[in-house]
Amino acid sequence: MKKIETLAMILAGGQGTRLGKLTRDIAKPAVPFGGKYRIIDFALSNCANSGIKNVGVVTQYQPLELNTHVGNGENWGLNTHDGGATILQPYSSVDGEKWFNGTAHAIYQNIDFINRYEPEYLLVLSGDHIYKMDYQNMIEFHKEKKAALTVGVIPVPLEEAPRFGIMNTDQTDRIIEFEEKPAEPKSNLASMGIYIFDWPMLKSYLIDNYAKNRTMEDFGKDVIPAYLRNSENVFAYAFKDYWKDVGTIESLWEANMEFLDPNHALNIRDSSWRIYTRNYSAPPQFLTKTSNVSDSMIVDGCYVAGEVKHSIVSPNVKIGKNSTIKDSLIMANVTIGENVTINCAIIGENAKIHDGAQLIGDPKNITVVGYAEEVGGLKDED
């Protein structure tokens, strides 16, 4: 196979336990977002728009929906004669290992796949963040610094820094210290989970470690400290645009509500940097004479007979008469009956909300209905 400069590996096997009901049946990167997208669409679109056409997608937990969604990368323009997306799942190796035990271990288990491309650089991405980023700018930074490893970082409020892995740098952006969720952080440069490695060096580190003590499982906990101990050239690339970790119910809801802003920093209508997804055929939306929609996104296939305010309504959702939806995300194929009130909520795919149900949350306590869950309606008597 032709040698390439950069191969991207998207780590998309996370369970996303903090998303509760929403990730009971699907992996976190496959969770719907913004009406028509899934979270992983942002990393895949960034690769396509950055000119990186060879992408490995590492899956593990509940991969069926994710695998179907990604396919061969056609919907992101990755299925070229010299590119494509490849699904990489755990498998039983000669030493008996079947599961990925961490981010670095997932890369180690896929060394044979990576070696097919002989990349000069390995771009490692998380599949569960919302952002637009030109990875070529980060690659150029990596080259200019002659770095062995470049870590994407984003400035966060200092009071939030204890939630993240923090990179402490000198005046040249060289990382001199890494702190994992420090109680008293020395800087506010939080790791974004985006890494550019010189592949030959990383491969050597991983193979040597697993041949000896097998302790190099995570990039943050193991690999970065090892590079720093050995005085490798490790640099921080500061990203200052919109980036959101949607790992909690509150942050997922907040990111969707921000998405409604026509002046949102993501600028979803920017034709020069599209966010692509797998599109499913659906009839046009239908708003009845009893409907009242304001400040909302209503996607194809929807039938709306009620009131929708500042909400996102995904494909093939039905909303009955006299129902009110406000400040909420309604995922695909949801049926909402009549006289229903939904406020500050996330309603999972294929859920059914019966007539008269009341689902009332607030921005600090979002109401969640899980995949195919039913709320209200008559109950069988014993």
Task: Give the secondary structure arrangement, pairings included.
Elements: E1 6-11, E2 32-33, E3 37-38, H1 41-49, E4 54-58, H2 64-70, E5 84-88, H3 103-109, H4 111-115, E6 121-126, E7 129-131, H5 135-144, E8 149-155, E9 165-169, E10 175-180, E11 189-198, H6 199-212, H7 219-229, E12 234-238, E13 243-245, H8 249-259, E14 286-287, E15 292-294, E16 297-298, E17 303-304, E18 307-309, E19 312-313, E20 318-319, E21 324-326, E22 329-330, E23 335-336, E24 341-343, E25 345-347, E26 352-353, E27 358-360, E28 367-369, E29 374-375
Parallel strand pairs: 1-4, 1-6, 4-5, 8-12, 14-17, 15-18, 16-19, 17-20, 18-21, 19-22, 20-23, 21-24, 22-25, 23-26, 24-27, 25-28, 26-29
Antiparallel strand pairs: 2-3, 6-11, 7-13, 8-11, 9-10
